[in-house]
Amino acid sequence: MEDKLLVSSKLAYQNKRLKTLLNKYKQSHHLQNALIQLSEQASTVAELTLLYPAIHDILQKYVPSKSFYVVLLNQHSQSLELSYFSDEKDGIAVALNQSNSFDEGATGYVFKQGKTTCFTKQQMQDAAAEGLFKALGTPAEHWVGVPVYQEHNIIGVLAAQSYDTKQGYSAQQIQLLEFMSLYLATAIERVKKRELLESEVKIRTRALTQSNDALNLEIEQRKRALQRQQILFKISEIATQAKNLDDAYFKIHEIIKTITYAENLYIALYDKETGWINFPYCVDEFKENTQPRRFAKGYSELVISTEETQLIHPSRAKELTTSGVVQRSAPVPKEQMATSWLGAPLKTAQGVIGLIVCQAYDNKHIFSQDDCELITFVSHQIAAVLQTKLANQAIAKSHQELEFRVSEKTKELRQTNLHLQMQIDERKKIEQQLYHDAHHDSLTSLPNRSLFLTQLEKTLQHYQRFPNHHFAVLFIDLDKFKDINDQLGHHAGDQFLINVGELFSQCIREHDLLARLGGDEFVILLTHLTEPQQAEDVANRIIDLMKMPFCLKGASLQSGASIGITYSKLDYTHTDEIIRDADAAMYYAKNSGKNRYELFHPLLTQSIPEQELQTLHHLDVLPMSFRGSEIITLNEQHQSESLFEAFGEHPILGFTSFDILKKFAADKEQHIQVELQLLQRAYAKAVNANIAMALVPCSSLLLGLHEFTLFTEVLSKQQGQSQLCLLFDEQEIRHACATQIKNIKKLPQLGYSIGLNNFAKDRCELNLLTDVNFDYLLLSSTFSKRVLQQESYDYQLQGVLAITKLKSIKVIAKGPSILNFRALLDKHGLNFFVGKQHSLQSTEQSVIQKNQSLQS
Fold it and tell me: H/E/C letters for each residue in 488-540?
């Protein structure tokens, strides 16, 4: 029995607990549904007046709230105003959003307290009796007020009341009201923003509509103005483009067609003096032309007499005929009677000169007031054009008579002028020939000394203003020219000079100047140069062409050219100095073996006694020093190699490279002695500087039969960690004899490293790279620059790189020490560069003693 009671008790407890959970679930479900519906209303309702009834409908599903109202705080007046009111017994006592006594009632009490308050009828009366607030309206059996918060500020009160004593408010229903109040502020704010946005959209739409209407009106006005302007342009063009009056009438008709109906149109001209009206132009579907007539009482006369545009329809035509203003000499068939007639006077400053008329039959078109305004506007412009044309026609007629008389006189003058013109042309030809003869060589037709010096003077002045615009002068003297004259005669010599002039012209550009100074001397002015090598290239082309045999009178002749080159410099102030230096370099080239070129240097024009000059040519007494340039990569990483270059302190030439100084060596033995001593000193400096490989330039003279023995003896005595790479100039190796080529090939076999210096300075010969086992290849700065300028040189470079890669030759580029230059070359496949030059010893005063033994 006790067990049954215990089980019954447990079941009752579980049922009670399940009912409690079910109520909580229902409450949560009601709360969730209410909030979802509230959120949907806030998102869809367009006005606050629609939001509150929607909220009221939601509450009635879960809370006794037939009587429900919302009171919000007015931010400006700081008083509570009614926003929504619905009550079973009381109607709306005051208008919404107007001041009332809610501040003093229970609603104001809840607003001040800031918390949910619930009253029964008795509790409300007791609170009113205590003076907490005033009792307003019909007393309710149950009343509940919930404050509405926005963030942390209270903005109003949501209140519900019931007049049924049995229908009170449970804790769950009050909790639902509280949750609704939490989301009410957000919903109100969202609807307010939507209302504001829609209001702004309406205002903006209204403004845009007004603006669009104004814009459309302005567009129409502008279109009308543009149309009129275009018409004016077309009419103004008639004055210049029309061939004659008939053409002008036709063009006027075409213009009228673009603005109104003008299938039937005529133009009439009125002569006030004779009283006649003429019709020079008429296009009509019933009349091919209109005959002239005296001034009478027709439509045309009405326009002329009133000087106003007339728009005539059948009703007005009848009035004009009835009143006698218009009279017809003969009846007009009905089908030929115009159903709409529009005529405008052609008025000028002198009065009306005629009219222009458009008419329509069988109601095909009814002219309007707009047509009237347009035709009036156009008629004023047409009148001015026609008056001009008529005046021109009258002038042309008078001119015809005058031209006939003038033409007779013109025939006479033409014969005289023809004779004079022939004399003038003959004189111009003579003057041109005289100018040409004065400035050109009579034999070769090349510019002569006078023209050359004039152009050289202009070039020098331009260079003084723009020092970057370099130029060069090549002074050319032909070798063996006297032998040609002696053997074949002067006529053959003249032909030889003509042929040589044509060959030289092939070696220069169009803007360069080739001139003959006289005899067998020629000069070339090269402009727009960027480096001296460009002038050397021209000299090489000339020398190569002159090596070819010439055929004259069945004989084969061999000549040559000795060329002196001077390059622009700021020291030049007169053309005589330029010619002097180029001439001095030419004589030096001729005395040095002919068929070659030489660049000018100051020693050639120094007035030095012979004995002192010989002393200056002793290289062994000149102070010598070395400058090194490290081999680097694009990112400035230093390699284990350095380029050693020797410099000497010459009393006239100054601090000059050994490559230039060795040209002035007193004799061959002295040159070799000094070069071997420099080789020993370069090796010693490389050892002291701990350089793995020193690239030292060497002369091809060291490869001679006897010199090579001394050369290898000196090399064999060098010991230490550093090594020497013997650099030979590419031009010297190219012209080396068989013995020298044989000896340079022996050097790698003897264990010495060799390299080729200044490769491709004037030409790119790849056979040198294949015949000799070089370890290093130094590209000339000229070739490096041209790789970036011309595509053909890039092809040559790729050929060089292909061979050097196969033979494991290290390629090093010379050129400006700037990052952009190296970066561009790096893209073409060059990875190693000669870095900036620096002194290997800050001060070197040691002098190579004369006759110092090679073994010391």
Answer: HCHHHHHHHHHHHHHHHHCCCCCCCEEEEEECCEEEEEEEEECCHHHHHHHHH
List the alpha helices (DSSP H) in 242-342. Answer: 245-257, 299-306, 314-323
- Length of the chain counted residue by residue: 856
298 and 328 in contact (C-beta within 8 Å)? yes
Distance from C-alpha of 438 to C-alpha of 434, rounded to nearest angstrom: 6
398 burial type by CB count under 10 A (0-12 exposed, 13-18 middle, 19+ buried): exposed
Do residues 644 and 682 make contact, with C-beta atoms less than 8 angstroms apart? Answer: yes
| Among 671, 655, 729, CA closest to 695 | 729
The closest of 188, 118, 119 to 148, measured between CA atoms, is 188
Q: How far apart are CA 316 and CA 67, in angstroms?
A: 78
> Residue 514: beta bridge partners?
524
Q: How far apart are the first and last CA of the chain?
A: 139
Strand partners, 641: 693
Q: Quick one: which of 467, 641, 690, 465 has its CA closest to 567?
A: 467
Query: Around 16, how many Cα atoms within 13 Å sit in the side-chain half-sphere?
Result: 6
Q: Which residues of the chain have pLDDT under 50?
A: 92-99, 608, 611-613, 842-856
Q: Which of 145, 141, 148, 151 is nearest to 174 (CA)?
A: 145
Separation between Cα atoms, residue 705 and residue 796, nearest integer Å: 34
Instruction: Decide if 137 contacts 69 (C-beta within 8 A).
Output: no
The span from the CA of 399 to the CA of 444, in Å, is 58
**Residue 30: which H helix or E strand, with range?**
helix 2-44
Q: For residue 649, what are the β-bridge partners?
A: 655
SS3 779: strand
Whose tokens are 């814009």? That residue is 215
For residues 77 and 88, give the distance between their C-alpha atoms in angstroms, rounded to a whole number.
30
Residue that is written with structure tokens 């067609």 in the block: 257
Determine if the pTM surpasses 0.70.
no
Report the 10 Å Cβ neighbour count for 845.
8
Strand partners, 63: none
The b/e string for 210-248 (b: 16+ C-beta within 10 A; e otherwise) is eeeeeeeeeeeeeeeeeebeebeebbeebeeebeebeeb
Tokens of 439: 């400035």
What is the per-residue pLDDT for 855?
36
User: Under a CB-based contact definition with an 8 Å cutoff, are residues 633 and 832 in contact?
Assistant: yes
SS3 244: coil
Amino acid making up residue 212 = N
Contacts 24+ apart (CB under 8 A), 299-302: 299/326, 299/341, 299/343, 299/357, 300/268, 300/343, 300/355, 300/357, 301/277, 302/326, 302/343
Sign of CA dihedral 151, 152, 154, 157: positive
* Contact status, residue 658 vs residue 682, Cβ threshold 8 Å: no
Q: Are 235 and 251 in contact (CB under 8 A)?
A: no
pLDDT digits (tens, 9 = 90+) for 369-407: 888 888 888 888 788 777 777 777 777 777 888 888 888
* Helices and strands in the chain: count of H runs, count of E runs: 24, 27
What residue type is 855 in one-letter code?
Q
DSSP-assigned letters across all residues of 438-471: HHB-TTT--B-HHHHHHHHHHHHHHHHH-TTSEE
Strand, coil or helix: what is 300?
Answer: helix
Strand order in the sheet with 67-73: 80-86, 67-73, 153-162, 142-150, 117-120
- In terms of DSSP bridges, do strands 624-632 and 521-529 run parallel, antiparallel, or are they unpaired? unpaired
Q: What are phi and psi of 439, to 5 degrees?
A: -120, 5
Q: Please tell me the predicted confidence (pLDDT) of residue 591.
A: 83
133 CB-near residues (< 8 Å, 6+ apart): 104, 105, 106, 108, 109, 127
Question: Under a CB-based contact definition with an 8 Å cutoff, are residues 734 and 765 in contact?
Answer: yes
DSSP, collapsed to helix, strand or coil, labels residue 247 as helix
